[in-house]
Fold this sequence. Notes:
The chain is an alpha+beta fold and 121 residues long. The protein has a domain at 56-115. The protein contains two helices and five strands, in the order αβββββα. The protein has helices at 25-44, 104-115; strands at residues 56-59, 62-69, 72-79, 84-91, 95-103. It has a five-stranded antiparallel sheet. A hairpin with a 4-residue loop joins strand 3 and strand 4 (84-91). It is elongated and about 95 Å long. The model has no long low-confidence stretch (mean pLDDT 76).
Amino acid sequence: MTDQTNHTEIPAAAVSDRRPAAHHGGWLWVSAGVLAALTIVQGAGLLDRPAYAEMTSRAGSYVAMTTDGGSDEILVVIDDRNEYLLVYRNENRQRLSLAAREPLPDLFTRARARSGLPARP
């Protein structure tokens, strides 16, 4: 008896791919969930850090505020009567020196011009 087998070739396009399908859709859902959670947290204001004016003091027509300037302490003084902003530096906690003196009307005019808003009459 002769053993005859049929050796016909099947085109590659007709062969089904038996490899497991990659599940890339799972990572898309994870990233969508993370983005949704961040949106909810930001929208609810849970990450907001309010600015507290705890280091301010008012005496007559002067308002003073201190802040950390790195290696130096900074003292900002607003003189309401003369309309000036004064910035002092406490260098090495030993010497107080004037770092800047700005007229408030000029300061607000420059800030308004930079913001693109129309000038005040």
